[in-house]
Design brief:
Blueprint: H1 9-22, H2 25-33, H3 49-58, H4 66-87, H5 99-107, E1 110-113, E2 116-119, H6 122-135, H7 139-151, H8 156-177, H9 188-198, H10 213-237, H11 252-275
Antiparallel strand pairs: 1-2
Helix pairs in contact: 1-3, 2-3, 6-7, 6-11, 7-8, 8-9, 8-10, 8-11, 9-10, 10-11
């Protein structure tokens, strides 16, 4: 069975129309180049030069690839940000210039705010984590995600237990990859704290002079709360600690809460790991 296309025709059309009507050839090259989308040369169409250039970039994208989908979302986010800059935020008295984009993103489980496209559904968050598993060639991470997907509705306790393991595996992968040691029996909060420290994502790492320093510190503190919450909900409802996979009182809604938090956290850590070179390790706490 053919894989479903993640990069939809309608989203492609919206970007292509904007580029054709509002950009230039060099602007199109910058837009796609900044998202690491290569140009396929030699594309022949009966359309104009700008539309043909966009289609040359589209030809290099695999619409079923999660990695290419993430690159394309970077393009979409930039286009939406430029439209918002031109027209200003939507108001009750005026039509939303981004309505078409928002509608298509919502179908895929994503939303747009503050210049960024973010996963808004559990499925989309897991897809983001899958993209990282593919990019880093992490078969063990992909296995956790597949187990979670198959268990959310049929075995919520298993999904919750595996969500905790997803974050644990992500932390160990980052630490292992950078030669940072940890104890064999270290629990999730300890592993996560070591990872936050290695990535300079602890509240104390935010300089006083940074814009919105207090807000950033509070957000980073909340990440630690998410980790603690995952560990605790797994202890209450998840598999492990001798519990049965059929724990009474746990349902799919509990599983979606835990899975959504775990997938978001794992993606954030891997994004940070990918984008920021690790400094000299501080050592595990």
């Amino acid at each position: 069975m053919a894989e479903a296309e993640l990069i939809t025709h309608r989203l492609r059309q919206l970007v292509e129309d904007w580029c054709t009507n509002q950009s230039t050839l060099s602007g199109i090259d910058t837009l796609f180049g900044d998202a690491d989308v290569p140009l396929t040369e030699g594309i022949v169409t009966s359309a104009g030069a700008r539309r043909t250039r966009v289609r040359g970039y589209y030809a290099s994208l695999d619409p079923t690839s999660r990695q290419d989908f993430r690159r394309f979302l970077t393009v979409v986010a930039t286009v939406m940000e430029r439209i918002e800059e031109q027209w200003g935020p939507a108001s009750p008295d005026a039509p939303d210039p981004l309505a078409g984009f928002r509608k298509e993103l919502a179908k895929l489980g994503y939303g747009f705010a503050d210049g960024k496209i973010q996963a808004a559904s559990v499925t989309a968050r897991l897809d983001d984590a899958k993209a990282h598993a593919e990019a880093f060639d992490l078969a063990h991470l992909g296995e956790h995600i597949r187990r979670i997907e198959g268990a959310i509705d049929t075995d919520p306790a298993l999904a919750i237990g595996t969500a905790k393991e997803l974050v644990e595996t992500t932390a160990k992968t980052i630490l292992d990859g950078n030669g940072i040691t940890y104890g064999k029996n270290d629990d999730l909060p300890r592993l996560a704290k070591a990872t936050f420290a290695a990535l300079r994502q602890l509240p104390d790492d935010v300089p006083e002079a940074a814009k919105g320093a207090e807000i950033i510190r509070r957000t980073l503190s909340n990440l630690a709360s998410v980790v603690q919450g995952l560990a605790e909900i797994r202890g209450l409802y998840g598999t492990g600690h001798g519990r049965s996979g059929k724990v009474r009182g746990v349902g799919a809604r509990h599983a979606r809460l835990a899975v959504g938090a775990a997938a978001t956290l794992a993606t954030y850590l891997l994004d940070t790991h990918q984008e920021t070179p690790l400094p000299s390790p501080r050592g595990a706490p």
